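Handout, section B. The chain below has 520 residues.
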Amino acid sequence: MSESRNLDELTECRIEETRKTVEPCSIVIFGASGDLTARKLIPALYHLFMAKQLPNPFRVIGFARREKSNEQWRTELRTALDQFSRTKPINEEVWKEFSENLFYCIGDFADKGGYERLKSLLVAFQNPRLANNLLFYLATPPSQFADVVEHLHDADLLRRQGDGFWQRLVVEKPFGHDFASAVKLNEELTRYAHEKQVFRIDHYLGKETVQNILMFRFSNAVFEELWTRHSIDHVQITVSEKLGVGSRGGYYEEAGAMRDMVQNHLLQVLSLVAMEPPVTLDAEPIRDEKVKLLKSIRKMRPADVEKQVVRGQYFAGMLDNELRPGYRQEPKVKSDSNVETYAALQLFIDNWRWSGVPFYLRTGKTLPLSASEVRIQFRPAPHVLFAAQCDGHLDANALTLRLQPDEGISMRFNGKVPGTSLQVRPVRMHFNYDTEFGAYTPEAYERLLLDVMAGDATLFIRRDEVETAWQIVDSIRTAWGDKPLSNREFYSAGTWGPVAADDLLAESGRAWRNPQPATK
């Protein structure tokens, strides 16, 4: 008995030994005075340092136009850390040791002299690896990528050839605003660097629960056997937000939900949920399968878009007992704007595994709950025995992957209600990350920055992924054109979206399953 009782403990498997070594390097942040540096990058690096996961030695250099000394920059970052660190209070001894590795370089992105000063600073570290192993984080608008990359090349800081050292470029989304601009941006980035040196970061892929999709699928034979058209009726992917556009009205007028969320976050999750098993767990085989999946999505003509895609826009309504303004009343938004704050899609994947299975994706602003989840809705039981007795009211099984918040996995199945009568009711089997592991979940940027330093591109988006995703989105936006929103496409703040989105599923006898608040 004792042997079988301990079996679960014996089967734990550690895979991290295969991780690439993190070598001493310098991290150069372009746009170091910006919000991203203070809110995400420096807190992430501080926590990696505290966990002794950064290489020894390392340096972090902030590159920006504003004049300030090393000490001034360090003081600004220390103040910001009080607000944005995930651990509080700040460990002053750790911060002091960490901050000694922070330096500031004054320079304009288009000024050759700034790059010469940067090169001199790197040489002054008197360590060949700190001067040549370089991670360039472009926390800048995409319009400035070309200037930065060209000047880095001209200063001999960015090199294509392998000389025993490495240089890598990290860029944030948006990766263009359509297919054509994405192609142009990729050409600018790879003019002086190989594609393998470019790391396109989507923080969503750094979340533990998103990474766990592949672990869940390909380390559990019982679920992967069911992961086909034979067992699954449809899949719902929901990314909902309680917040409106707020101060981002100007940006949102140019982007909309389709560009802001569908092109990246939702299609990335879809590719992980539906991709085929990779031949290995290395970066390129995984990214190959993601691209193959995206290319398998059935192309939509304008007539298909009209049937399979819904857009929406919120008007004023109550949310959390507070009156929220409508989108057209938000700052920097046109009073007659047709920009979508909500999008719902029905996609079909034309491959052997998924033929005929609809995938429903939706995202929206000012919805009742902020949540990201994937719901696998299985086919209903045959209309005999209990299903026949329940006259169609027997709930189909479902598996829900809750990506955030309250991260976990739930299995929904039918069970007998205790008592003398025969009653059937759906019940839930639930796994919760916090309850099971009782350990912190690192911020996405911690994992992603460490992966860049190690040269592991698994969680980063390849050029062909970006371009394929834009082709999907562009076909939808082109079909919309300048067509105004209809009454059925508006929704009140605090509701789950427009009536037209419900119709999208109702036509096939299905319905949205809305994320639920956590039950502790």
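Note. The mean pLDDT is 89. Compare this with the example in section A.
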